[in-house]
Amino acid sequence: MTTRGIIFDLDGLLIDSEPHWQAAETAFLEAHGHGYDPALARRYAGLRLPDVIGVMQQACEIPGDPDGLAADLLARLLGEYDRGLHACPGAEAAIRLLERRYPLGVASSSPLSVIRFAIREFGWEASLATLCSGEEVSRGKPAPDVFLLAAKRLDIPPDACCVFEDSLAGLRAARAAGMRRIAVPTQAFGTADEFASVANVVLASLTDLHRAMVETPRNKENGIPNDALT
């Protein structure tokens, strides 16, 4: 089906928040007697905060109330955000390009407070028709729930939505939702082959979006441009 709406992930896709998450996770783990582990981070990449805590507690045997631990990690993350956020390369241009053609939404595993903080920081409120958080649904990524919620709020069938994602969990969630998938991989979270196996299109960064939509060679058989979104 032709694309009628766009759904973005947030962390690592629109905003360069991975250094902030890593700093918050490192401080949190060190407070509980553990160091940051990239292999462990791959296991919880793209997951909701309670699910991140669940992975950490199981792997590192961290005692305590999960809700309290999640609140602690969230406070550390927001403290890191207060130091300043940066948009990912091409994010601003991608939003300006796509909002001319499609309604846009965000579907992120992050808490809604974190999503709203970031969107306000970059002045994207008017460009995004809906902001959806994994905390609003019963199952987080890689389940499709948050993407299906975004499609419902956009009033667009799931198979007419195109998702931009940087994590394998997010791409698997979008695939489960029946949506088209464009990967802009955070390579620390998976191999090139893993991303290619689950995405319809893989871009090195959002700066490649204009070329992928507009400047690709025309199809030799019918003269129609090859568009990453179709």
How many H/I helical runs? 10
Q: Indicate the mean pLDDT.
A: 90
Question: What name does the CATH topology of the largest domain carry?
Answer: Rossmann fold
- CATH superfamily membership of the largest domain, which one? HAD superfamily/HAD-like
Query: Quick one: CATH class of the largest domain?
Result: Alpha Beta
Q: Tell me the span between the first and last alpha carbons.
A: 8 Å
User: What is the CATH architecture annotation of the largest domain?
Assistant: 3-Layer(aba) Sandwich
Question: What proportion of the residues form beta strands (DSSP E)?
Answer: 5-15%
Biggest β-sheet strands, sense, barrel: 6 strands, parallel
What is the approximate shape?
globular
Characterise this structure.
- The structure is a single chain.
- The chain starts with a strand and ends in a 15-residue tail after the last helix.
- The protein folds into two domains: 5-16 and 86-215, Rossmann fold, CATH 3.40.50.1000; 18-81, Orthogonal Bundle (DNA polymerase, domain 1), CATH 1.10.150.
- It has helices at 18-31, 38-44, 49-60, 66-81, 91-98, 112-122, 145-154, 168-176, 192-198, 209-215; strands spanning 5-8, 104-108, 130-133, 161-165, 180-183, 201-202.
- The chain is of the alpha/beta class.
- The relative contact order is 0.17.
- The chain has ten helices and six strands, in the order E-H-H-H-H-H-E-H-E-H-E-H-E-H-E-H.
- Helix 1 (18-31) packs across helix 4 and helix 3 (49-60) crosses helix 4 (66-81).
List keywords for this structure.
6 strands, 230 residues, Rossmann fold, alpha/beta, single chain
